[in-house]
Amino acid sequence: MSAALQHDVPDDPRAAIRARVAAAGTSFYWAMRLLPQARREAMFAVYAFCREVDDIADSDDPPAVKRAALARWREEVEAIYAGQADTPLPIILAEIAITYRLRREDFLAVIDGMEMDAAADIRAPALAELDLYCDRVASAVGRLSVRIFGADLPEADHVAAALGRALQLTNILRDLDEDAQRGRLYLPREFLEAQGITATEPAVVLRHPKIGRVCEQLAALAEQRFEEARDAMRACPRRAMRPAAVMGAVYHAILVRLRERGWQDLAGEAKLPKPLKLWLALRHGLL
Q: What fold does the segment set 1-103 form as a domain?
């Protein structure tokens, strides 16, 4: 467990988790506020798990150190499902795994995704590899989430598959410059090669005069995934899907803002103002 959760209110790990999620200031926090307290606390625990493994993958540690740390989290997941969890966050995860019938393979898939980042800097992956990455780091989280929301049915997994990919592709487009500074480039190889871009050095690729066409093609794919998610939500209980609908609305608004901004200044931010986030939360959370 990270120092953040070890030292923040150690006698009340749930309070430490709540504080960590609130401090992050993410759209996730406001979407999850729509849930009843028990489900909200469960989602915060899943978020804490995701932050733990993501922080490992994004650290400056050597790849071998990252892999070892992620391997320890694999052992934690096994302990969770063997009834042997003995530290605060895994104990909480063990409780919610039973309550909401969360699947071990989804936790492990998230770790698999982080291992893709930890093994080596991802640069211009093939579309199939990018899709697998999105499934692991985003759609697997969605599969855990929809069960906590109260929708344990195949249609909800369809929402997780499409919406997870939509959110992750939007993140990729939003964070192109930041990822490039870390030596990462998630734009798919096929899209780059179609524009005559054969380089894989992130900074070189982002300066290419046709990079905007690549970004727009990926944005169109993200838009398609958002539409697929909305269609899948119609087959699910509306109340259970409210948090997913809010997340989808907020991230779709970010995608729209990115496309309106254009792809000339990839370092420019595309944040949504808080009043707009609140309006989207009210619109999609209360309907």
A: Farnesyl Diphosphate Synthase (1.10.600)
